[in-house]
Amino acid sequence: MCRRVHGLHPEHENIRDADDIATVWNQFCEFIKSNIGRQQVGVLVAWNGVTCDMRLIHKLCQAPNSIFELPTSIKYFMDPMSVIREYKGCKLNKKHSKIESYELGVV
Predict the structure, then answer these.
(1) Can you name the residues that pair with 43 across neighbouring β-strands?
(2) What's the pLDDT tens digit per position in 11-54?
(3) pTM of this prediction?
(4) Could you tell me which residues come within 8 angstroms of residue 75 by beta carbon, excluding any fewer than 6 positions away?
(5) Greatest Cα-to-Cα distance within the chain, rounded to the nearest angstrom
(6) Cα–Cα 20 to 30 A to 31, which of 6, 57, 89, 94?
(7) Residue 51 CB: number of other CB atoms within 10 A?
(8) What is the dihedral of CA 45, 49, 53, 55, to 10 degrees?
């Protein structure tokens, strides 16, 4: 899937030279902490995230003996693609627009 969508493969420099998951996860958590106040609630937004991003994040955080936890300030998840596709009243829904598909590059 990544190869088709992003052109990434195991030998790609962005993969080969990437930081390990623990480093990336810590950077992600620090970003969340610095951008969501103590009394605020976060919404994780990922285009078509139900099929990829959120499934992987859930596996990462729920794996037995996992050292990773989703920051507690993130309470909700939203997939804009699902909103556009499922809610017929949305102006970007095919019912109201002439978009060819719900791919992010098209929308």
Answers:
(1) 76
(2) 889 889 999 999 999 999 999 999 999 899 999 998 888 777 78
(3) 0.72
(4) 41, 42, 43
(5) 48
(6) 6
(7) 12
(8) 120
Band of residue 1 on the pLDDT scale cut at 50, 70, 90: low
Q: How many CB atoms lie within 10 A of CB 57?
A: 19
Mean pLDDT of 42-69: 87
Q: How confident is the model at residue 69 (pLDDT cuts 50, 70, 90)?
A: very high
Q: What is the pLDDT of residue 3?
A: 66
Token pair belonging to 18? 């990437």
Residues composing the chain: 107
Q: Which of 18, 20, 19, 22 is nearest to 68 (CA)?
A: 22
Dihedral, CA atoms, 63, 7, 31, 57, nearest 10 degrees? Answer: -20
Distance, first Cα to last Cα, the chain: 20
Six token digits for residue 40: 């605020």
